[in-house]
Amino acid sequence: MMRRLYFDRDSARGVAGTYEWLVDEVKELGEALNARHRTELRKEFADVIAWLASLANLTGIDLEAATVEKYDNRCPKCGHLPCECKP
Ligand SMILES: [Zn+2]
After folding, report:
1. Structure confidence by residue, pLDDT tens digits, 43-75
2. pTM for the full model?
C-alpha cells in the first residue's frame, strides 16, 4: 500500500531523507508514549510503520517477508514461542 501511495515521492526524496523522516516519527512516537494520549499514540504508531515501509520500499526490501523470515512465530534467538530468553 505504501508503495502505491508514496513510492514516486519517496524515490524523489531518497533513502537518506526518508530515513530522517522515520527517525523524526520515532521521536514523535516517544513523545506520544510519554503524553499517554491514546488517539495520538495510535496515529504515531501508524506513521512509524508507514515511514518504515517507505524506507523498505526504497531499499528493495519486502518488509513483511523479511519480518516473517526472521521471526516466523518464534524468537530468532531462543527459537521458542513465546520467547524464553533471559531478560
Ligand atoms: Zn527468545
Report:
1. 999 999 999 999 999 999 999 999 999 999 999
2. 0.90
Cα of 26 vs centre of ligand 1, distance in Å, is 25
CA 86 – CA 28 distance, rounded (Å): 30
Q: How many CB atoms lie within 10 A of CB 34?
A: 9
The CA 72 to ligand 1 mean position distance, Å, reads: 12
Single out the residue of 15, 27, 23 nearest to residue 54, CA to CA.
Answer: 15
Query: Quick one: DSSP state of residue 87?
Result: -
Classified as helix, coil or strand, 33 is helix
